[in-house]
C-alpha cells in the first residue's frame, strides 16, 4: 500500500475539494466518503470505490470494516494522521476515507405511479437532507425527490443519512414543477406541505394510491409555483405559538402519514 | 446608550462565556440569546432581559424588534461590528444579543398525571434538542422532560428551538428513573422508545390518559435502567436496512402519535 504523508499531495487535495465542491462532484461523477462504517456500508450497497485512504491505526482498529473495503476497492493508500486530519470533517477522525463513484440515480420518468415519495425543494441544511433520507428509508418510502441544489453527496448530508442515501432511490431534478405536472397526469396525488392550519389536515388525506408530498426550504417553505401545481395543500396541524416545524421533523411526520 | 467597542470588555467576555458554558449558565441562572426575532420573542414570552447589546445597524435594520426589546430590558449597550462578530455564533450576525434570566421551570412533581410528555435522555446534539422542543410545542405537548445534561439554553439549542423552549414547560431532572417511578405510581403510561421491530408498534398503543414517552441518546439510545422502568417498550416500525431514526425525527413521530 503506497503511503501518503504530505497534506499537499495532489490526491489529498483532490479528495478535499471533492468534499467541498458540489459542482466538482457533479462534474466528476464522484463523491467523498468518511468513516469506517459508512465506507463499509457503501461497499455492501454496491457503490464503486475508486480510491481508499486509511491511517495505520485504522487498519487494525477498524479491521472488520477495512478488510471489506480493501477487498472491493480500486487503489488503496496508507495516510499519516496529519493527512487524515486534513481530510476529515470531524475533530477525531477514524482515519477511513473513500472516493466513490456516484450511483446512477433513477430519472423522473422512473417514478412509480403507485409509489410513495417525499420531494424536498431547495432544502438548505445538508444535515436536514440526510435526516430526511434516513427517515424515508426507515419508513419504507419508494424514494426521495430533491430539487434546487440539494446534494445527497454533501459530506454532512452523507453523515446524517447514515448510509441511507446510498441505498435509497433519489431522483434529482432541476424542474420540480414539470415533475409534479407529470405525476398529476399519471394520476398520482401531489401534496404541498404548508405551515397554515387552514390547509387540509394531513390525517384526513387518503393515501391509497401513489403520492408525492413536497416539503420546502427551512426559511421560506415551498415556492408558489410548486404549491400551485400540487393537487392539495396539506398541514400538520399546529397549536401554541409555533409557526412551523424543523424541515426534517415535518418530513418525518409526513412520511409517517404517507405510510401509515 | 453606552458604547462598547472593545472585544476584551468584561461584559462581552462574560456574555461569550455564558454562551459557551452550561455550568456558568446554571450557576448564574442566566443565558445568552442571539438574534432579533429570538430576543423579541423572549421579551413577549415574559423572559427577563438583564442586558441587551445592539449594533448601530441593528438599531435601524431591526427597529421593530429592537424597540420592543429596549422597552423591556435592563441595561442596553451599543456595540461595534467587531464586538458583534465576537459575540455571534453565526457568520453574518444580525447584531442583536441579550443576557436573559433563566425561567423558573416546573419541578418533576408538577408533571400533570393526564398530560402528554416527551422525555429526552442524554441527548447529545443541541440542534436535536431544539428541534424536539419546536415539534413538542407545535404538536401541543404539555411539556418536555430532559435529563443527563440536555441544556435548552445552549445557543445551538435555542436557535433550533425558534423560541419554543422559552415558552414550553421543560422539566429538567438528574434522575429520570425516579421520575418514571413516580409517573408509574400516578397511573401514567411510560413508554421507552427502542429501535427494535419486536417492541410494541407505537400505532397500537392507546394514548387516552397521561403518557411519558422516552427517547434516548443519538448513538446509544435509552439506558437499560430507563427501559426497565418504563411500562412498555415501543417502536416506530422500520423497514429496509435502516437501523434507527435521527433522534429528533423519532421524537417528532412519537409526539405526533401521542397527540394523534
Structure description:
Two copies of one chain form a homodimer. With 260 residues, chain A is an alpha/beta fold. The first copy, chain A, has helices at residues 10-20, 22-28, 36-44, 56-61, 63-72, 81-87, 126-138, 155-161, 164-167, 176-185, 224-229, 247-259, and strands at 2-4, 30-34, 49-55, 73-79, 96-101, 116-121, 143-147, 170-173, 189-193, 200-201, 211-215, 232-235. In chain A, the strands form two sheets. A seven-stranded parallel beta sheet of chain A has the order 8-7-6-11-9-12-10, sandwiched between helices. A five-stranded mixed beta sheet of chain A has the order 1-4-3-5-2, sandwiched between helices. Chain A is elongated. The N and C termini of chain A lie far apart (50 Å). Chain A binds chain B through residues 127, 131, 134-135, 137-140, 160, 162-164, 167, 203, 236, 238-246, 248-253, 256, 260, and chain B through 127, 131-132, 134-135, 137-140, 160, 162-164, 167, 203, 236, 238-246, 248-253, 256, 260.
List keywords for this structure.
homodimer; 260 residues; alpha/beta; 60s Ribosomal Protein L30, Chain: A; Alpha/beta knot; 2 domains; seven-stranded parallel beta sheet; five-stranded mixed beta sheet; 40% helix; 23% strand
Amino acid at each position: 500500500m503506497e503511503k501518503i504523508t504530505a497534506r499537499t499531495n495532489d490526491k489529498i487535495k483532490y479528495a478535499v475539494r471533492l468534499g467541498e465542491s458540489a459542482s466538482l462532484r457533479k462534474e466528476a461523477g464522484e463523491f467523498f466518503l468518511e468513516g469506517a462504517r459508512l465506507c463499509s456500508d457503501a461497499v455492501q450497497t454496491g457503490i464503486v470505490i475508486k480510491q481508499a485512504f486509511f491511517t495505520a491505526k485504522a487498519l487494525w482498529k477498524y479491521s472488520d470494516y477495512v478488510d471489506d473495503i480493501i477487498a472491493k476497492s480500486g487503489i488503496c493508500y496508507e495516510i499519516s494522521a496529519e493527512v487524515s486530519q486534513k481530510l476529515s470533517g470531524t475533530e477525531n477522525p477514524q482515519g477511513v476515507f473513500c472516493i466513490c463513484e456516484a450511483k446512477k440515480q433513477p430519472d423522473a420518468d422512473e417514478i412509480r405511479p403507485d409509489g410513495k415519495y417525499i420531494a424536498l425543494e431547495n432544502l438548505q441544511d445538508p444535515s436536514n437532507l440526510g435526516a430526511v433520507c434516513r427517515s424515508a428509508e426507515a419508513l419504507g418510502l419508494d424514494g426521495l425527490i430533491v430539487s434546487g441544489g440539494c446534494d445527497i453527496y454533501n459530506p454532512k448530508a452523507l453523515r446524517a443519512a447514515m448510509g441511507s442515501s446510498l441505498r435509497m432511490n433519489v431522483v434529482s431534478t432541476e424542474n420540480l414543477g414539470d415533475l409534479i405536472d407529470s405525476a398529476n397526469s399519471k394520476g398520482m396525488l401531489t401534496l404541498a406541505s404548508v405551515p397554515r392550519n387552514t390547509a387540509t389536515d394531513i390525517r384526513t388525506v387518503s393515501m391509497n394510491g401513489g403520492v408525492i408530498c413536497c416539503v420546502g426550504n427551512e426559511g421560506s417553505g415551498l415556492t408558489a409555483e410548486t404549491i400551485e401545481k400540487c393537487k392539495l395543500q396539506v398541514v400538520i396541524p399546529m397549536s401554541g405559538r409555533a409557526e412551523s416545524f424543523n424541515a426534517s421533523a415535518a418530513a418525518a411526520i409526513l412520511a409517517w402519514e404517507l405510510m401509515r
